[in-house]
Amino acid sequence: MLHSHLTTLNAVSLVLETFKGEGPSPEELLAGSGICAADLNRPDTRITTNQEMRVCANAVALRRDIGLDLGHQMHVSSYGMLGYALLTSATFGDALRLALRYPALLGTLFELSLREDGNHIWFTASDYREIPTMETFNVELCLVSLKVICDDLLGQPMPLLGARFEHPAPDYRARYAQRFACPLHFAACSNAFAFDKSWLDQPLPLADAITHQTMAERCRKQNLEFTGRQAWLGRIRQLLAAQLSAAPGIEGLALQMNCSARTLRRHLHDLGCSYQELLDELRFERAKQMLGEDQLPIHRIAEQLGFSETASFRHAFVRWSGVAPSAFRA
Prior knowledge:
Elements: E1 6-7, H1 10-18, H2 26-30, E2 47-48, H3 49-62, H4 66-73, H5 80-87, H6 92-101, H7 103-106, E3 111-117, E4 120-126, H8 135-154, E5 162-164, H9 176-179, E6 184-185, E7 191-196, H10 209-241, H11 249-256, H12 261-270, H13 275-293, H14 298-304, H15 310-321, H16 325-329
Parallel strand pairs: 5-6
Antiparallel strand pairs: 1-2, 3-4, 4-7, 5-7
Helix pairs in contact: 4-8, 5-6, 5-10, 11-12, 13-15, 14-15
């Protein structure tokens, strides 16, 4: 599954660094995410995308164009072993194809693809399925960071032929010109930027066959480990998803996973999440689906998601998405 529910602390650390000295404390930016300062000192910490988005939502509430700044700071070196595997690739095209092979290591919330259109290559980010109110932020973060990666790989700014965005032009549209020096199109058919096809064959200045082979193999193993952990998490999600109307609780879920509640808690902690966070995430996903179908009244949706009161469901949905269920349905 593309939309990995685990990611690194890269974006969270950048949020804290961006606001350093500007007023909001780290505690304010981390509020509601379940991430503490100690977690930031452990490089192997994994968090859920919901936790990351909570921190980013706190940042967007303070500065709506923050996605453009965060993406500009996400250099290729931010991606660890994958970053160095990309840098040591033989050509620009080889590097991009390698990046697309490991979306989990990129931590993307999108389906990334290279789409050929004559002499143009459109680097496209599609299939966003996360919090609707954060879509513009995530598009900005994704496309700007991809442009930065391209520039880092080539060792020079790569000229763009155009950029397009599905969302309407924001009131800070002028800032887009700082990140995308090319014709801009809003309310477009996709989120993408274009470059000349000839760049795909461009040799990279830091290419090194031996180092690349070593780093690419490490990426393969890391991806296997990462996806293995995701498979275990996927089993838990599958069990919980089938029981949303009467959630089993941590004890009941542990029995179904053939382990103790203590073991289950420890494994979930190692994965950067908790039972309640997973339950909320699944409820939110199902709620969005049911509201989109526009058939059941909201009080029945609340019942099917295991809420004893409709008001509790409304409060939870606002906390998850930033809008009321009725507004989301509209």
